[in-house]
Amino acid sequence: MKVGLAIYSILSNATAVTSYVSTRIYPNVAPKTTTFPFIVYDVDGDIPTDTKDGDATIDLNEVMVSCYADTYTTACALAEAIRDTLDRKSGTYEGVEIQTIVYTGYNDIFDDNHEMGIYRKAIDFNIRQINS
């Protein structure tokens, strides 16, 4: 249930990502006054993997990391940096033990409700988290 802390830690410590967004990385929603580009990540719950004789030792978390930009070129470059940073990552981040992160795909989204339009790449990952 703390996998979002690990995502933030990994992204905020990756120069390839922070060179675009600095510290503009948010769980669930960004403040309305946030400047472009920025990142919002959402954890879409988890699936516990129970064992025969005890609690689940590994949870599978579905995570969507969205990057928002005012140009398509920037959105593409930031999405690549996010994928390169997270895909196949493992280790312990903010006390959360990650067995592996696997990239599963992305969607292009354009929001024309904004005066200039907003380019968004929604990047999906499955994260195997080890429960201690």
Question: Can you summarize this structure?
Answer:
With 132 residues, the chain is an alpha+beta fold. It has three helices and six strands; from the N terminus they run H-H-E-E-E-H-E-E-E. A hairpin with a 2-residue loop joins strand 4 and strand 5.
Question: How would you characterize the overall build of this protein?
Answer:
There is one protein chain. By secondary structure, the chain is of the alpha+beta class. It has 3 helices and 6 strands, in the order ααβββαβββ. The chain has helices at 3-12, 15-21, 72-86, and strands at residues 25-27, 38-51, 54-69, 91-93, 96-111, 118-130. It has a 6-stranded mixed β-sheet. The longest helix is centred in the middle third of the chain and has 15 residues, at 72-86.
Kindly report how far apart the N and C termini lie. 12 Å
Structural class: alpha+beta
- Count of helix runs: 3
Largest sheet: 6 strands, mixed
Indicate the overall shape.
elongated
> Oligomeric state of the chains?
single chain
Percentage of residues in DSSP E strands? over 45%
Output the radius of gyration. 15 Å
List the uncertain runs.
Answer: none
- The overall strand count is 6
Helix content: 10-25%
How much is the average pLDDT?
Answer: 91
* Biggest sheet, spatial arrangement of strands: 1-2-3-6-5-4
Order of helices and strands: HHEEEHEEE
